[in-house]
Predict the 3D structure of the following.
Amino acid sequence: MKRISGFLLHLLIAFAAVTTSATGQTVVKAKNTTLARPKLVVGIVVDQMRYDYLYRYYDKYKEGGLKRLMNEGFNCRNNHYHYALTVTAAGHSAVYTGALPAVNGIVGNDWYDKSKASNVYCTEDKTVATVGSSNVTVGKMSPRNLLTTTVTDQLRIATNFRSKTIGVAIKDRASILPAGHAANGAYWFDSKTGNFVTSTYYGNELPQWVQDYNNKKMPSEYLRRGWNTLLPIEQYTQSSPDDVPWEGTLSGAAKPIFPHELIGTAGDAFGVITTSPWGNTMTKEMAIAAIKGENMGKGKDTDFLAVSFSTPDRIGHAFGPNSVEQEDNYLKLDMEFADLFNFLDSWTGKGNYTVFLTADHGAMDVPAFWQEHKLPAGLMNPTTLTRTIVKSLNDAFGEGEYVQAFENYQLYLNNALLKEKKVSIEDVYKVLRETLIPVQGIADVINLTDIGRAPLNTYQLELYKNNINAKRSGDIQVIVQPGWFASSYGTGTDHGTPYNYDTHVPFLLYGWGVNKGETLRRTTIADIAPTISALLHILPPSGNVGNPVEEALKK
Ligand SMILES: [Zn+2]
């Protein structure tokens, strides 16, 4: 009989707990003595990425990018937004807070503040200043309007603020809201100077690595290169012809066709890059620069990079989902992902980091494109709609400024005037409903101040309820028909509705702690933050309402 040394015996006791199961069998379970976590979490949001883009271009994606996440990670294929107003700021906040807009307060990109009688931009903050640019307005930003914590905040709290969390995106809100309140930094693009900037909320100086990136002057180089297709143009078989009437044009361009010249305007020298795939290239370069510059994923505690690719949204709004431009953009974005994952393999070691990928909302196809194929869709003119609303209220209650703001298809009513005229919100609602229901493209009108009595189906009712914040939401909600939106442009597309094309977005998990597989069980955006929280063994964010996707996580 072999003799077990005292040291080895000690080790066995430390690593194994011997228990007796219900069937009487002895079960030996390995027991970790320290808590295991990935070295780095990289959260990726692709702005306006609809679920079907994973498959629409699948055959053309290369290995190592999206296919790596889809085939080696876990794919929640039936993942949806859980509220009605599907826009960028609300989406990024919901992903990282696991909360409802009703609770986290980010009910739109903009809303109206009745107490101040002014419009509010989601991340505006007049108490801070720009860092890294002569543009004074670009950096007056912070996460202060976000009312709950993020998963990035919770990681900071859980590690006694040793974990580093950084946000990077072209759009300010897409960088600031995911990075959270306690972030080490958040960086976004100033289209006037071509610099990545931050605000004094985070610090008084740009870190050296951001200054180094800005000094490379990549935006000038990308403007010079212009935008050509990756493949010969006849291979873009998933798209309409390159020149169709419902595509917008880039600044200075006569037609929406390849090759696109990238020409800045006098007041906005570099903005045009963000509507070309180079916007994604810069975002990836900044993501890698952040990881290197902040030495993320090398310490004892898990770090978290929140990166958002804003360009797909800009291209969608300009050219629409069925354009050669968007197909080309996704083929190139997929290659940027492969680059990023290869970098992460070499930086932290393969299997030592966790990635998730989702989107802040989807998008409708361009209504004119659907109409051409006899599909139900259309555009409403916002000016005509507003005039109809104003006229109906003046006719019913006498002349007056009844509507203070019209944002997110919500009317913010003038309470003082209503009081003076002895008109209730219910009275206004009844007039508007009668006026607007006959309008083509409008499905219904509901009174948000009395939503419990709204004559709406229970599914949509919940989505609208999830949006209502008493201090920030309007009084009356106009609900558009599926396939319809209000726009004064006849080109490009939009989002912001409770319909499938806007709610159904990817949710992919990959890497440390993640099982290989997929589910068609319905998951929601609110499940993302608690899934990452479960993976990290941290408390989910303060307003979280979601649940971990248990089948995606290794036991
Ligand atoms: Zn967006």
